Task: structure prediction
Amino acid sequence: MKASGLSSLYYRFIAFWVKLAGSGSRVERISNMVSALRGALSSSRNNLYTAHLKRIFPSKDQEWRNSVLAGYWRVHERNLFALFYLKSKVYADLEDNISWIGREHIDRAIALGKGVLLLVPHFGDERSLHVILGMEGYPVDVITSRYSDMPQYARDCRLGIGRKWNNLHFPDENPRWMYRTLQAGRIIHYASTAYGGPGGTWINNFGVPVLVPSAPWKLWKRTGCQIILASCSQTPGMGFSLRFTPIDPPEDRIAFSQVIGEATEKLASEYPSQYEWKNLLIRHRETNTIARIKKIPTDERELERLAEYTDADPSRVLPLKGILDSLR
Result:
């Protein structure tokens, strides 16, 4: 069977079990069983994650790293199950199992009327964050992939819940919509740990140079919008904990991006099982590929195609100055 057929089959498998399970606790038990299997079958990737964790947290032992990875796979898998679990829900069905930390910050930011830029790192369940906000009536516009490499059923599953509660936008759209959205006092949900592209900003994050987007800084400088770091941790029984931390960023573009990166590091250090370590692996690999090919492709898929196995080696950490020199 082709990979696309397997993908659709897997999504249908999850949809079936979520419908059969019914309650959040039963859905989570099934998700945890599947995550244990997926984690056990991902030894090569686990080795890369383990090497990064050993580098970032040198004082921790192997038992701790194993625990983090087990938690990581539970979070990773439950994010897919949440697509189907939330499909027929409204906020009243969930509110007893949702906690808010710093909600007053997002409410105050909206009241100021200049728009809110929610910077959302790859942590916990980013999709359920904007879905729950939409359920509660917050006006959220979301930048998302079109998932054009996925079969139709899987693509509809990925995008359907967001279309129900939010306005979705795609990377190939004219970015003017972002300025209009903020000027209208709305919220933009933006992945702060995404690929930066040719116009991105280099920072050090988790001990390695990474290229992050410059768009948040540009939007802030032009609109005066409020900047909030937002996350959605998973809690037991298909619960969610939403956290909003206001950021008072420096004027300088690099310093702005570094502050956001450091806030993300702090979040990951507090809840390491919730962080999407796959994202760090990808950003680190991309950095090494960029240094090797001496250019920054516009299309991230091109960068992925040009990657070599050694680019993902966690021990291969290049100095930022060396990378910048290679691009001149």
Summary: Residues 175 and 215 are 9 Å apart (CA to CA). The mean pLDDT is 96.
